[in-house]
Amino acid sequence: MFPDEGLERLLGLVESLSDKIAAIDATGFLDASILGESVHPRNFNTLRRIRDEDGSVIEEEEQFTELASNEFLIKQLRELLDGGGREALDALPDGIHSGLTRPGAKGVFFYFQARPHNGTRLHFWKYYDLKSGGIVDNRYLIANLIACDRDTPRVVDPDVFRSVFELQEKVIANILSSVEEQKAREAAPRSIDPIQQTVATAIQGFLSHPDVDRPRAVEVIKFISLPMRKTQVTQLREAFKDFQRDSDFQSLVAKIEEIRAKFGAPAAVQPTDHELPATISRDDLRLICFDVICA
Q: Could you give the residue ranges of the DSSP H alpha helices within the chain?
């Protein structure tokens, strides 16, 4: 963690660099990345939130990574299908396996599908890392690990292959456990800071006032009635302190709208790609393929 002074200097440097690159872009001379990565306001906004100890940063960055992973995989799949790979994929039987060499890697990739009774099809990519003893489910990392050309030599380490069935059972247990954990997280109520309820109640008391823009106030109440980030709650608390001191209702509403404009509206419920079934048993899982990775 950077000291506050060091982080402020870093933020200033990033902002200055972003401004310079934006100026170059405005002249029409920026047709490629200058430093290998594009500079975007979100980069230093993220640094600010890390400085403010906003714990939601990690969750959001994971979501961005997942989004990039899905786009990467879709691109690869389209290239494969456009190259005439659909027929070859349809002809593959379940449970097939292969293997390849990857410097510094040792483990087994498993791809399972689950087809429970409600008809929802779920997909699970798992890589059992024999070097660390852990299980990886980041699809972007796995895709880069197993990616190969059509003419890549097939290599299967016999020592690793002998442990495949043992590793498969560990992966299955991990899948069943992860599904239950996800269901529990989605079912758990999301917390609301007490100050949010306090402010919402205060605003509700002004809804019948003739000088109050009722639709605007209602939108503000909806905003502060959803789970908020720590930095949002902090700013909301400061705005309410000002309101308690000067009783300026219009100023309170305006400050809350500024918080919303700065951070965006929180989501009431994070959408999922699919609705999880009530239960997934071992019998619901079907092994599509596995790949032995060795150095």
A: 4-26, 41-51, 56-82, 85-90, 139-146, 158-161, 164-187, 194-204, 214-224, 230-246, 249-263
Residue 139 burial (10 A CB sphere; 0-12, 13-18, 19+):
middle
Pairing of strands 96-101, 285-294: parallel
The first and second tokens of residue 57, run together, are 């940063």
pTM, 2 dp: 0.50
Q: Give the tens place of pLDDT for each residue, 45-74.
A: 656 666 665 655 555 555 445 444 555 566
Give the separation between CA 91 and CA 102, rounded to whole angstroms. Answer: 27
Provide the 3-class DSSP secondary structure of residue 219. helix
- What confidence score (pLDDT) does residue 27 get? 47
CA terminus-to-terminus distance, the chain: 35
Q: Angle at which helices 194-204 and 230-246 pack, to 10 degrees?
A: 40
State how far the Cα of 3 lies from the Cα of 243, in Å rounded to an integer.
33
